[in-house]
Amino acid sequence: VEEDADTFYGNALKKAQEIYNISKTPVIADDSGLCLEAYNGWPGVLTHRFAGEEASDEERNNILVEKVKDTPKAAKVVCNLVYYDGTNIIVGEGILKGNITTPRGNNGFGFDPIFELESGKTLSELTSEEKNKCSARYLAALDLKEKLSKIVIGYSYQDEPITAGQLNAQGAMAALLKDALKPNLVQTLEKTPAFI
């Protein structure tokens, strides 16, 4: 799916709808990126492509560090997770605030080495477990989980609404919510529901 929207939400929704049209199963799709405060949220949806499709993580990071050399270094990582089931569109958003710094740490990829948290550590200096509990994708998954738990997905034999939250402990919805908190979700395409 070509990510050609100008917002994280737009890209995530496009992916979710296109995969739903193929699979006819509920889909969770995401888009995320780095936003520099001094540049009105740039590179944003272009985070992986602003230096060209062939640029390495190191090349992109060097450009970003140079870009904020003489400006405020405040930045945020934004992730939008979109659930789509052919009817409902539900969005979870996660925002992780920090600053751009010189590269540090060995446990990460992309802009992890230059994204410094309030703790003073970069994302690459965290353990995988620490990173998975503070990442923008994790925060978006928690937000989506809360919103999904409130949608009506059917009715009981007594014509009472059944919410996703009421079925949270069983079936596909439980698997969906559990798997939504896994790292690297965007790389995984499950059978039911579909994830991209």
What can be said about this structure in brief?
This protein is an alpha+beta fold and 196 residues long. The chain is built from five helices and seven strands.
Radius of gyration: 18 Å
Spatial sequence of strands, sheet with the most strands: 4-3-2-1-7
Uncertain runs are 168-174, 182-196
- Cα(first) to Cα(last) distance is 10 Å
User: What is the overall silhouette?
Assistant: globular
Tell me the number of helical segments per DSSP (H or I, 4 or more residues long). 5
Mean pLDDT: 84
Count every beta strand, where a strand is a DSSP E run of 2 or more residues: 7
Structural class: alpha+beta
Which percent band covers the strand fraction? Answer: 15-25%
User: What is the succession of H and E elements?
Assistant: HEHEEEHHEEHE
The main pleated sheet reads as: 5 strands, mixed
Helix content: 25-40%
Key words describing this protein structure:
196 residues, alpha+beta, five-stranded mixed beta sheet, two-stranded antiparallel sheet, globular, disordered C terminus
Structure in words:
The chain is of the alpha+beta class and 196 residues long. Helices cover 28% and strands 22% of the residues. It has five helices and seven strands. The chain has helices at residues 8-23, 57-67, 128-132, 136-148, 171-180, and strands spanning 27-36, 74-84, 89-100, 115-116, 152-155, 161-163, 194-195. The radius of gyration is 18 Å and the shape is globular.
SSE layout:
Layout: H1 8-23, E1 27-36, H2 57-67, E2 74-84, E3 89-100, E4 115-116, H3 128-132, H4 136-148, E5 152-155, E6 161-163, H5 171-180, E7 194-195
Parallel strand pairs: 1-7
Antiparallel strand pairs: 1-2, 2-3, 3-4, 5-6
